[in-house]
Design brief:
This protein is mostly helical. The protein has one domain (about 5-275). The protein contains 14 helices and no strands. The protein is globular, with a radius of gyration of 19 Å. About 50% of the residues are buried. The model has no long low-confidence stretch (mean pLDDT about 90).
Length: about 280
């Protein structure tokens, strides 16, 4: 892979990883347009590994929160009288991160095989848009009616588990990990800003583990295929772009609904379908 293609893919990853529009779906389409074979082992691994750059950006952005939660959780383990909100939230992150790891390993061959089809991406983009619209509408109705929504201090381990289980659906390209977790949180009566922050917290363990696993598993495939230099460039670029994307998204959700993302997903799904039907790109 040449460095220009690596930079383009790094930018796509950085922009889309935390937006509820499916980074994997966008990367898959971009890789096809660049002439890559998306079901090759090296390309599949490359797609997972460059996500580590975006996760590094999230770790840097939320470093103080991560330290706070980790410290609170460790103190709670050591002494029962230290078990406060941060201890509970720490457990919620841990419990919520387990399901996607288990399901991802169990269905690895399916995820890296049949689910890589662009028809699956288009269908998932459109289908999950309905879920996101319903979740956003429910949250807005609660605000308008004066019922209010829950903040981070009210989150429980059960919330973490339910959101984590929903995160497993993001293993289907096109659903979007952030779209799945944010929707689940909104259905649980959690406000948009907290739902978005929580999608970051649950994404850090899951995507870090996925990227490192693929790096170890497909080291030789990367070396013989897209190349580690290009992979490194794409990962570095994705980190910088993702940091800016995180900052923008948190400002956006503080005062806006997710309607724009829903519309974009539907338009993107239609565009992919047109490209497939016109034989501009192949499904796999």
């Amino acid at each position: 892979m040449d460095w220009l293609a690596a930079i383009v893919l790094g930018v796509v990853e950085g922009i889309t990883e935390f937006l509820p529009v499916s980074s994997t779906g966008h990367l898959t389409v971009t890789e096809k347009l660049l002439g890559l074979t998306i079901d090759d082992a090296d390309v599949t691994a490359f797609t997972a590994i460059i996500q580590v750059g975006a996760i590094l950006a999230a770790i840097i952005y939320f470093w103080r929160d991560i330290v706070r939660l980790a410290t609170g959780w460790c103190k709670g383990l050591a002494k029962k009288d230290q078990r406060g909100t941060d201890y509970r939230l720490g457990w919620a992150v841990i419990v919520g991160s387990v399901p996607i790891g288990v399901v991802g390993l169990a269905l690895e061959d399916v995820i890296e095989g049949p689910l890589r089809s662009l028809w699956v991406v288009a269908a998932a983009l459109a289908g999950w848009s309905v879920v996101m619209w319903l979740a956003d509408r429910l949250a807005n109705r609660a605000v308008v009616s004066g019922q209010g929504l829950r903040g981070e201090e009210s989150l429980t381990v059960v919330d973490g588990l339910i959101i984590g289980l929903t995160q497993c659906l993001a293993l289907v390209p096109g659903v979007s990990r952030s779209g799945a977790t944010i929707s689940a949180a909104l259905f649980r009566g959690i406000d948009r800003t907290t739902a978005t922050r929580w999608s970051f917290f649950l994404g850090i363990p899951a995507l870090t583990a996925s990227g490192l696993f693929q790096a170890a598993k497909a080291y030789d495939d990367i070396a013989a295929g897209v190349g580690w230099a290009a992979t490194g460039v794409a990962t570095f670029v994705s980190a910088g772009v993702a940091y800016l994307s995180i900052a923008w998204l948190l400002r956006f959700v503080a005062s806006n609904r997710f309607t724009g993302f829903v519309i974009y997903r539907v338009v993107a799904a239609a565009a992919i379908a047109v490209l497939l039907l016109a034989s501009v790109i192949a499904a796999v």
